[in-house]
Structures are given as C-alpha cells and as structure tokens.
Amino acid sequence: MAGARVAARRGRCVAGVAAVLVAVSVVACSGSGGSGASANPSVSASASATASGSTSGTAPVSASAAGSVDPAQVTAESLSDEELGYTVTSVPEGMDAVQAEVVQAYVAYDQFTWRLWLTPAGTGTGMEGAEQVMTDAKRQSIEDQYSELEQGQHLEGQVRTAILNVSVDDQPSSSHAVVMICADRGDMKDYNGAGQDVTASDISGRSERVMYLLRTNSGWKVDSEQPVSQNECTV
C-alpha cells in the first residue's frame, strides 16, 4: 500500500504488520464501531485492558496536532499513568512524528475508556469528552455497553500494555493507521452494583489486538478494533 510506514518493537515481524495493514484497510476505513479492546469486559469478554481501581488519575494523554509530536518524547514512561495503574511497557523503535502522534492518540483513547469502566457506573463524568479520542461510531459502541451496566458496577485492577507496532497510511484521500498492542489485565476484578465479585474466568490474562485509527479534522481517533490472540502475546 503506497505511503504505508511501519515502526515495530524490537523482535517483531515488520513485514507481518504491513500485511495486516493491507488486509484490513477496508475495515479500517469502514467507520465500524466494533467491539472494544477497551470495551467493558463485564459486557464483552474480549476486552483488552484495564487499570487500577483508582479513578482520580491524571487527565488522559491528549492526541497532539499533526506534526507537533517529537518522537523522542513519546516513551513508555511518558505514556504511563502511575496513579491510574496504567503502565506502558514498551513502544516501537524508530517512530516518526506521525507514528508517535498515532500512538499518543491510541493511549488517550485507552486511558479514557478504562477510567470509564473503573468508575462506578452512574458516577463520574461518564462519556464526557469521548468525541476527542474516538469516532462517532466507536463512541456509540462504547456508550451502548456503558448503558448496560447496573448502578455502581465497576472494574478494579491494573493493566500493562505493550505497543507492539504502528503502521500509518497517510494520504490526502484516506488517512488511517493500525496499532498492534498486547495488554495484560493481570488479576482484574469485576464488581456489580452491590459490591459483589462477579469476575468471569476470561476477564483476566493477556490480549493481543489490532486498533484502527482514522485521521479527522481534530486529530487521530480510534475507530474500530479486532482481536488477534489470547494469552499468546508478551507484554
């Protein structure tokens, strides 16, 4: 695919990532909301990540304006949020400014969604600000899942996420990106509105997923996602 650029974590197969970009470009441009890697595990067992029970962490990482990102400043440490319990363990090597911008946009989305699930349903700010990190279709998908939660239902735990690689096809007529991630949800718990542990056996563990982002007038936003493997990737 013309214009595609790939940056991968050391040891990853870059050719394979490029193949994924080509194979799923139709999906990436479809605008489908999809079921989330950051969808609520208590609603969708294929969710990718969570963070700590604390909901008072710092504000999500902001997706920067095009061309304003210094790749050297986009590190695992800069993308992590200790108070939230959200740790990025690695990022791809050799990213250019656009790839770094895409990674920031993905992390902004991931942190937003996990703050949503970690906050007892019916409290906090809910979906406020969702339009800054996801497309309308994805927002509707997440909002539908959130509306299914009972009052007070929430998750507790921590997440460790490796950004395996990022591939960008940035053209005037069609700008989209693919980010592959591995998220380790560890011993995440799911509590219902009465505070009872209702954790399903498939909530914890490691999940490898492909995240599709679109460039909009206000920056890169997550549009859809696709599961790749369960308990096979390395964080």
UniProtKB/TrEMBL annotation:
Keywords: Signal. It comes from the Bacteria. PROSITE patterns: PROKAR_LIPOPROTEIN. Residues 37-69 have a biased composition (Low complexity). Residues 33-80 are annotated as: Disordered. Residues 1-28 form the signal peptide. This is Lipoprotein. It comes from Actinomyces howellii.
